[in-house]
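User: I'm writing a tutorial on reading structure tokens. Could you give me a worked example: one chain, its sequence, then its tokens, then a sentence or two explaining what the tokens reveal?
Assistant: Sure. Here is the example chain.
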Amino acid sequence: MQIEGYISLAIYFLAMLGIGLFAYRQSTSDISGYILGGRQVSPQVTALSAGASDMSGWMLMGLPGAMYLTGFDAMYIAIGLLAGALANYLLVAPKLRVYTEMADDSLTVPEFFAKRFGDASATVRMVSAAIIVMFFTLYTSAGLVAGGKLFESAFSVQYQWGLIITLGVVVSYTLLGGFLAVSMTDFVQGCIMFVALILVPVVAFTEFDSLSQMNAAAGESVPGLFESWEAISIVGLLSSLAWGLGYFGQPHIIVRFMAIRSVKAVSTARNIGMSWMLVTIIGALGTGFVGIAYANQFGLQVDDPETIFILFSQLLFHPLISGFLMAAILAAIMSTISSQLLVSASSLTEDIYRVVSNKEVDEKKTVTIGRFGVAGVAVVALLLAMDSSNTILSLVSNAWAGFGAAFGPLVLFSLYKKNLTHKAALAGIISGAVTVLVWIYAPVLADGQTLSSVIYEIVPGFIVSSVTLWLVSAWDRSPSQDVQATFTQATEELANQQA
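And here are its predicted structure tokens:
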């Protein structure tokens, strides 16, 4: 990359650090400001922040790579994600915004679970926090892998140094500004991703004389490409669409709903967020498809399909624009890593440290502990990401399934089932997480294959967790009248705010 590209990246890095410094001066004097931005985040920032933190590096690298490798099969993942995101806005966002505030102003998802069920022992809270830290460490490592590959492919920087540079910038502004910094940087990063995912496939397409020429080149490169979407098996289709189930249990996404300034703002955020998501997913799939045709037509050597966006950025654009497009990939990567680090640190601080210490902690000291938590999770994720053979999509899919199965059913049951008990909640979390882990790692099939080679692990995990929640609630005695009364009050308050 030429000097102009490095100038673009330098401007981007300085902008992110500047936002972190601004947020540090605005919102980090107390733990509520550090973790949730004082519940005053605008719908515009909520929408793009949720989208950017959701999509991560896999949007610009993993999904185009999947399209390049598997053809139109990847389209079903996109359809599942769009349906899941919409359902999340409709079913979870309004209720969670009201209920978390009424449940003694819960600041984290585990804290909400504990207060929702009146769990004085804090068992549900501690187990939830442990699962968040475990899966987010894995999830964060996926983002770092994307950063390492970017620097290695685009800048000829050693993979490990790429990891360190990526992590260094993200940790800096996350440590400084907390939730407000993460949300504001995500908004900017979401805008950058939006422009990039329109620009790259459109410019790449203009290299062909016509649509028919591009389609012919793609079909020539991958025989049966245009029939691939019809040839998918029922199990394969279910696995792809089931990605949408994961949305209900992603702490770094649903925490945005807890922080939005009002219930009425949710509909505005939904409209913006879904429009953004539709355009960017089409752009990501388009990048992968045009990449198939371009590689065949012009003899482009693609050693790693997950770098097709990077290759286009380097080949087709002026160095100054190329630097902007590299910043778009970093934006996607950093937006998710920062959200995951903050949620992990929040769980370590609010749901583990406070519970274990069992004493009142000064607000400023708590924020400081949260910052140490950010650094600690970052270091572990860095060590996990050192293996450059990891693929972004596989790491993301494992963590996505873990959260989706452990928390997804519980979030829905918590908001819609009045007599849900803390024993059922605990059983649902554990059964969902264990099912996913067994599905991923237990070599029970022939040739040491795991069950995840048959069907995506979120499907059995979500089902097992849901059935467990229902059965244990039916068997257990009803929760206290106070717990049921809070549920009723939250439902009534939601109706009042929506009126």
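What the tokens reveal: The chain has one domain: 3-392. The first helix runs from residue 3 to 27.
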